[in-house]
Amino acid sequence: MSASVCPVPPEQRPINEYQELQESWFFSWVTLEWHQYLRKLAWVWAWSWLVFGPVAAASFPPQTAIVPFFVSGAAGASLILTLVVIRLYLGWFYVRSRLIRASICYEESGWYDGQTWEKTPEFLAQDQLILSYQVQPLLKRLRRTFYGLALLVAVDGLTWICL
């Protein structure tokens, strides 16, 4: 991609934004193998207990109410995990929206000089391939993760109702 063909600054080109997310410490979690990805999410959930465990313990002493303690702590920890998954989804969805469009909005030197560039057929084809084979599967994984979290919270809620 030469600058004469594409006037968009390199850091604002969709393919470079994609590569930046792919190499990012946080956003690259989604690109890991399933077991590594789930391990990262479990790590976040476990660390979230540091915040919600004491809150749950203040409401439900673990010595006398272990199930309500665990259910409320798990719900709080799941909230943090849900926010993390939403953040991952939004980052990858932004790149998806940049790849799917036939034109790119960009700034040459600051917020006041926005421009739009129509992608050439070659750029559009390249972006569509990356979108189809790289980004869409990641978004699908994040949607599945979100559905799993929703199921976890639903089970947590049903357990709470059954208490």
Automatic annotation (TrEMBL):
Residue stretches spanning the membrane: 41-60, 66-90
Top-level taxon of origin: Bacteria
The keyword Membrane belongs to this UniProt entry's keyword annotation: yes
Matches recorded under InterPro entries: CGLD27-like (IPR009631)
Record keywords, A-Z: Membrane, Transmembrane, Transmembrane helix
Pfam families cross-referenced by the UniProt entry: CGLD27-like
Protein's name in the database: Uncharacterized protein
Species this chain originates from: Lyngbya aestuarii BL J
